[in-house]
Design brief:
Largest sheet: 6 strands, mixed
Structural class: alpha/beta
Shape: globular
Order of helices and strands: EEEHEHHEHEEEHHEHHEHHHEH
Number of domains: 2
Number of strands: 11
CATH architecture of the largest domain: 2-Layer Sandwich
Strand content: 15-25%
CATH class of the largest domain: Alpha Beta
Number of helices: 12
Radius of gyration: 18 Å
């Protein structure tokens, strides 16, 4: 059996799967929210509270792993542990809890693995497509040839601007995009992955329960994203967090995540996107 663990900025996630007859089958998926990135102070140091929350999440994942005869496992850490100045302190304890080594991967490697995971499931994998993973603390863009890691995401924007961005967002976005070269990624069939994208897909389809098969490849127009932003902005925090797909605190950060997806669509000159439930963990299994 194979296992893949993603220590992200907003949650830690686990896939357990099997490789049979040339196909990877995922039969166990676990998400443990912890908002590790929220514990970063202005000096880039993780708080003791956030590290303990992360270790608690890993204890739970270890409990799941112990139920299966895992033969190969790869655990990776992404944006928050790339930048935290005391990341090694956390990783030292985290590896004790998990019982396996944890690799801090670059944004480019993260983008490569995400692309690999999404393309694996497509019928014509040789066709060049754009894959975008909107995470909590970073966003990865990849088209198979070019990879770009951008240091912002749904949780990072929430920490900066609150649950519903105000007029300052427009200026921030203008200044932020000025520093980016997005030309290699523009005007392509685009697949969005990550928690914000999956939540968007569930909201667009008004799904009551997560269904990977129903979400995979779902098309959403930018106009739909705008409609959902308006709807969510008129709801209370409590109502947002009670909606399917927005539980466990996702409702706090979803509007910021949707603002960011909408901005990416505008800059990339695309009027619709596709949703994929695959990504980094599946890419780890494929790799």
């Amino acid at each position: 059996m194979l296992a893949a663990i993603d220590l992200g900025s907003n949650s830690f996630r686990l896939y357990i799967g099997k490789y049979e007859n040339g196909v990877i089958h995922v039969f166990k998926s676990v998400r443990e929210p912890n908002r590790l990135a929220a514990g970063l102070d202005d000096n880039g140091r993780l708080s003791e509270k956030s590290m303990q929350s992360g270790l608690k999440a890993l204890h739970k994942l270890r409990g799941v792993l112990d139920q299966y005869p895992i033969t190969r496992i790869r655990a990776v850490a992404t944006s928050t542990l790339r930048v935290a100045i005391n990341a090694q302190d956390f990783l030292h304890e985290a590896e004790k809890v998990l019982g396996y080594p944890i690799e801090v991967i670059s944004g480019e490697e993260e983008g490569r693995l995400i692309y690999l995971g999404v393309i694996y499931a497509l019928a014509s994998a040789d066709e060049e497509r754009l894959v975008i993973d909107v995470g909590g603390g970073s966003t990865e863009l990849s088209n198979g040839k070019n990879f770009l890691s951008v240091p912002t995401g749904a949780l990072a924007l929430y920490e900066q601007m609150g649950a519903i961005p105000g007029p300052e967002y427009k200026k921030w976005a203008k200044d932020f995009f000025r520093e980016l070269n997005l030309k290699p990624f523009a005007k392509r069939d685009s697949y969005f992955v990550g928690g914000t994208a999956v939540a968007l897909g569930m909201l667009a389809k008004e799904m009551q329960n997560f269904d990977a098969n129903a979400l995979e490849g779902q098309t959403i127009f930018v106009a739909d994203i705008e409609r959902i932003i308006i709807h969510l902005s008129n709801l209370s925090k409590e109502l947002r967090n009670s909606m399917p797909g927005l539980e466990q605190g996702r409702g706090d950060v979803i509007i910021c995540g949707l603002y960011w997806i909408r901005s990416l669509c505008e800059k990339l000159k695309i009027d619709s996107i596709k949703i994929s439930t695959l990504g980094l963990r599946f890419g780890l299994l494929c790799d």
